[in-house]
Amino acid sequence: MGNCCSDVGGGMAAVSGATSSAATGNQNDAVDMYLRSHGIHGLFSQIELSFSATSLRDRDVFSKSDPMVVVYIKERDGAINEVFRTEVVLNSLTPTWIAKYTITYHFEVVQNLLFKVFDVDTQYHNVEVKMLKLEEQQSLGEAYCTLSELVTKPNRSLTLDLIRREESVSSTHSQHCGKLTVHAEECFSSKSTADIILRCIDLESKDLFSKSDPFLVISKLVESGTSIPVCKTEVLKNDHNPTWKPVFLNIQQVGSKDSPLVIECFNFNSNGKHDLIGKVQKSLADLEKLHLGREGENLYLPTLVGHNYENKAIYEVGEVLQFYDADKRYPAWGFGARPIDGPVSHCFNLNGSSNYCEVQGIQGIMMAYTSALFNVSLAGPTLFGHVINRASVVACDSLSTGAKKYFALLIITDGVITDLQETKDALVKASDLPLSILIVGVGGADFKEMEILDAVKGERLESTTGCIASRDIVQFVPFRDLQSGEISMVGALLAELPTQFLTYMRRRDIKPST
């Protein structure tokens, strides 16, 4: 795998996310208290904006688009001024940009932000971004928001629909142009910097006829569990023992010396599909200890449950169900894992937060899952009851407010259930709620007991108190039964969902709104 001593798509040069700014202004106690309750520590806070996008339009013929974000501020007089440009990410329809934009947040001022995404033509790839003529680039769409609506979001992230400029005049309901996610973090000024030289030895070869072309991406983990890239090294061609140029990190960029950093080593590919060679999570303090002890740290590839089968399940099911969810925010929990120096937990927030469990979009689920792998170790036993009860609380709370919502809980497991009766009890209670449960079994475990939960023989589940489930709410699918390709996993998983939904609505005499 390799040893690290001491993509993000894009070109082969290094990219830094460093920005500089200063905060000024007097405080107002009442307003300052409100801002602090929303995670913002001052009337004139310096806010750092990070950018990522999904489902961008492909404007290139023989490759993917090469996107860049340009930020504008709309002044009170209506004038629109350009203030910032990211780097260009090569061959990517789902880019995450490293360059950050820092803006001073004024509570009393409505600060209108306009974001435009451009596809930079191949002939301009060696031109500095500040020298690019935007009229010579193709528009991939634009989005608008105010800074105040961004910083007051609970997770300080906002996902915006990209629309084409000519479409924005007549209709915003035209073809989809993708989505732009903007994440805000408060900057704390610091003059402390870290000068780091990183090198690897014995990297795994990812190319067939040559050595790997490695580069590093260093990211910080924010409160929501999202990883935000802060810098990227240059690409070193044909090198299994690379030593990169020094990386300069301001403490302001990473939060503190003890803040967790994810260092990922990729093999560069010109098509933008860079191969992950391995990764490691360390703080600046940890790296300093390694340096003083003249030690290294092994890179590793995350071993995802079921050899990535769960990625396929989440994406395929999510792609179908997301169109029935208005805000695209999903509660995400993990179970059967042991946090560092803690007991095994059978229901914890996947994003690492102790206050909220929601993530934004399908990509947010996957990012939270990947992040969680750094902080927990998988452990038995496999208990479903806790997670089902947690989902039942969400459905019950919604029902008590009179909301006409229906929920689907997706469980992915590689273990045999060990709390069968407790799970039955939870399912019997949940059968009266607007909830369906989809279970995917991955790996080679014996999942025969799962068929009992699915009531495949028509027998209703019975609780320990003798209560009978009012309806079947479970659909179980073993992934290995679908590997022939004759039946799609998403089709098998969702086969009973429409009937379960209609059964619930008819019993409650809930009719569609007209």
Automatic annotation (TrEMBL):
Name the SMART domains for this protein: C2 (SM00239)
Q: Start and end of every C2 domain?
A: 27-160, 176-300
Q: List, alphabetically, the InterPro entries matched.
A: C2_dom, C2_domain_sf, C2B_Copine, Copine, Copine_C, vWFA_dom_sf
One short Pfam name that applies is C2
Family of the protein in this entry = Belongs to the copine family.
Q: What protein name applies here?
A: Protein BONZAI 2 isoform X3
Q: What is the lineage of its organism?
A: Eukaryota, Viridiplantae, Streptophyta, Embryophyta, Tracheophyta
